[in-house]
């Protein structure tokens, strides 16, 4: 042999590696319980050292053997595409864009389960003793296209990747080696333990009615919208993408939930752990992050430059380059499309919040806040393009916090009115300001919208019903109101003043978090529907009482949007968690939502507010000129007093209300998997210990052991 013979391919037609036959190999595919029946009947292919291909099928126990092939190792693959019509596999394989190369092996692996709830693999598998070689493998090890599959889990018993690479470099194995397959060594029996292809999916109800499950889960997703997408490389990828940043949107969906890892981090500064309630689902039914594979999808090719598609472009919207700085993410599975819109972060966001001028809502009726409307127009086409590709009748669930809630409302109504689309939309917003006028609100009356407000959060009070003007005109008027807070509060609470156009109006059914001090000194909250805007406006007044002199408009809005009671992970998320736990315990004990003691504390706050309204009415009567016969201001105050009485009656009714399972879990109340999902959630001590209630921001020292004060004086 010549000295440079080693440079030639290990085998070829001219120089076979070894002309001898006589080797054999046997192998078996098993699940984590050591059972091979899950893979019985699967087709396989084997390439030997001469390049010859052998095909066959596993027997009913997942076993196969091969006799008398050319000497040396062989490469095993199970790459036959799924050919059935079962959903969601058929739809994923045949959809218009990003058709997935789902194999029969993948479908089988999705029907197996982990031996333990935390997905840990047992080193001493039941099939371990049966093998000369034992590997813990993944579907991606045995198929050619794997960009749509999860990253392999770490294990000390993974196949030897360097052996496959060495054989490919030597020309050993299938033609045009792609580093796919598993190397089996000759004259040995190999057992391949296939990792179940399961994922964790945050549970969301598809029912119209509010449930504690959605209240909590969507609060987490609204908080997640503040994170980056986390794709590396961020732009112009060439062969693959990763999502190493934790927390980030891409990391959560593509690298944690897809590999069955219970993620809890949704905010880089988060101190408390808030786990979503997850359900165990087949991998193909997870919330999807679309694959990146330039070989399989021409739209992923780097040579497209600005037109190249990759996950960050498909799932993540960031309009910072074009001035609105709107940010949102979108993902889906076979039942739900989830959209989450970010709240106020940057100075551009604050200035947009401050632009209260009204403009026509071109996709519907009425007028909308100009700043919010421009953000909606920026994101609209991005969402419609995604829906055009991946909407197959799922419920569209939209959530947003603060500014994101206002944009989410306009987006939801715009989508609802899309001609011939028939989108079925469910909207949850947290601490959202008013986004549009009374005509818009009336026109969107059929849109299902649950509007969540935290007590003392000032943001839902802006823009005020009377604000329809630019910053130049708004500031002098605001200074006038600040200089005389009592009339200013009266004008706002009674809704007596507006500057042109229809007044701003909230949309949706309001749910209010009312803080309560628990017997052990920790803090919880009662979620209820007050039906009285004065209670909501009290939060703005409490924030403004700390301001002193009137600041510049954008500074005022910045301070309001940075109030402690407005942040997600320190206010809305803990309050939503506390509500979920409270409702779970109430359901279990068959007790009332509000105890008698809690009602007494809250009733005192109501009485204080009623006295304020009556005092305002008396003050107004004394100031009215003798020849003024107008009853409009008094009528407005009387109406507000009546609404406050109704609010008290609503709260009182909670003492007798008994919850049903659907109040807590919505459409999942009937799920056969609910109990296993709850068992996983309660396995974390954070969800069992009362100390988690204390993560709700407590009232100040002089407010301990009572309900928060209600105050009608509010000026924004």
TrEMBL record:
Disordered: annotated span: 689-716
GO biological process: lipid metabolic process
InterPro entries hit by this protein: AB_hydrolase_fold, Fungal_lipase-type, Sec_MonoDiacylglyc_Lipase
Domain Fungal lipase-type: from-to ranges: 339-464
Name of the molecule in the record: Lipase family protein
Natural source organism: Pseudomonas lactis
């Amino acid at each position: 042999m010549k000295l440079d013979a080693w440079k030639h391919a290990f085998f070829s037609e001219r120089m076979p590696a070894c002309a001898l036959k006589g080797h054999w190999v046997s192998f078996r595919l098993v699940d984590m319980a050591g059972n091979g029946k899950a893979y019985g009947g699967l087709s396989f292919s084997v390439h030997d050292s001469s390049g010859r291909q052998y095909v066959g099928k596993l027997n009913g126990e997942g076993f196969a053997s091969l006799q008398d092939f050319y000497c040396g190792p062989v490469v095993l693959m199970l790459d036959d595409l799924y050919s059935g019509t079962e959903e969601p596999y058929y739809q994923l394989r045949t959809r218009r864009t990003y058709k997935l190369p789902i194999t029969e092996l993948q479908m089988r692996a999705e029907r197996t389960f982990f031996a333990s709830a935390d997905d840990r693999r047992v080193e001493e598998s039941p099939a371990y003793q049966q093998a000369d070689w034992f590997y813990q493998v993944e579907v991606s090890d045995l198929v050619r296209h794997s960009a749509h599959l999860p990253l392999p889990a770490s294990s000390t018993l993974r196949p030897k990747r360097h052996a496959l690479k060495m054989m490919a470099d030597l020309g050993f194995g299938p033609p045009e080696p792609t580093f796919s397959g598993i190397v089996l060594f000759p004259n040995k029996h190999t057992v391949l333990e296939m990792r179940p292809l399961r994922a964790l999916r945050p549970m969301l109800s598809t029912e119209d009615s509010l449930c504690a499950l959605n209240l909590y889960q969507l609060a987490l997703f609204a908080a997640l919208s503040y994170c980056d997408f986390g794709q590396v490389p961020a732009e112009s990828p060439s062969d693959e993408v990763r999502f190493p940043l934790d927390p980030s949107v891409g990391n959560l969906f593509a690298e944690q939930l897809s590999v069955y890892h219970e993620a809890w981090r949704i905010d880089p500064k988060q101190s408390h752990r808030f786990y979503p309630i997850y359900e165990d689902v087949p991998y193909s039914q997870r919330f999807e992050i679309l694959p990146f594979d330039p070989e399989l999808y021409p739209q992923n090719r780097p040579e497209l430059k600005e037109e190249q598609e990759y996950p960050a472009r498909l799932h993540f919207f960031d309009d910072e380059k074009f001035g609105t700085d709107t940010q949102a993410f979108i993902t889906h599975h076979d039942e739900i499309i989830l959209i989450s819109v970010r709240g106020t972060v940057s100075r551009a966001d604050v200035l947009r919040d401050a632009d209260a001028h009204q403009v026509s809502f071109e996709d519907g009726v009425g007028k909308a806040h100009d700043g919010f409307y421009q953000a909606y127009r920026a994101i609209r086409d991005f969402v419609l393009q995604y829906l055009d590709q991946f909407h197959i009748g799922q419920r569209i669930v939209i959530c947003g916090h603060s500014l994101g809630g206002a944009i989410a409302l306009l987006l939801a109504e715009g989508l609802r009115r899309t001609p011939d689309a028939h989108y079925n939309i469910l909207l949850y917003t947290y601490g959202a300001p008013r986004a549009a006028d009374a005509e818009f609100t009336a026109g969107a009356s059929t849109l299902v919208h649950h509007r969540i407000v935290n007590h003392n959060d000032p943001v839902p009070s802006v823009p005020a019903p009377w604000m329809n003007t630019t910053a130049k005109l708004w500031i002098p008027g605001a200074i006038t109101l600040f200089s005389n807070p009592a009339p200013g509060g009266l004008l706002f609470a009674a809704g007596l003043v507006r500057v042109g156009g229809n007044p701003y109006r909230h949309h949706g059914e309001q749910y209010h978090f009312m803080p309560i001090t628990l017997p052990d000194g920790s803090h919880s909250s009662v979620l209820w529907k007050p039906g009285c805007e004065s209670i909501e406006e009290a939060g703005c007044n409490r924030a403004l009482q700390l301001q002193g002199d009137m600041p510049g408009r954008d500074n005022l809005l910045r301070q309001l949007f940075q109030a402690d009671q407005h942040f997600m992970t320190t206010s809305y998320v803990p309050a939503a968690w506390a509500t979920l736990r409270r409702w779970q315990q109430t359901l279990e004990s068959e007790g009332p939502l509000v105890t008698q003691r809690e009602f007494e504390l809250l009733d005192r706050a109501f009485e204080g507010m009623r006295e304020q309204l009556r005092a305002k009415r008396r003050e107004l009567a004394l100031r009215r000129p003798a020849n003024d016969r107008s009853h409009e201001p008094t009528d407005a105050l009387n109406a507000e007093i009546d609404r406050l009485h109704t609010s008290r009656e609503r709260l009182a009714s909670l003492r007798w209300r008994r919850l049903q399972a659907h109040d807590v879990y919505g459409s999942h109340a009937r799920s056969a998997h609910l109990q296993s999902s709850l068992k996983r959630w309660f396995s974390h001590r954070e969800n069992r210990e009362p100390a988690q209630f204390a993560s709700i921001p407590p009232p100040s020292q002089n407010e301990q052991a009572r309900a928060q004060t209600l105050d009608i004086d509010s000026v924004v």
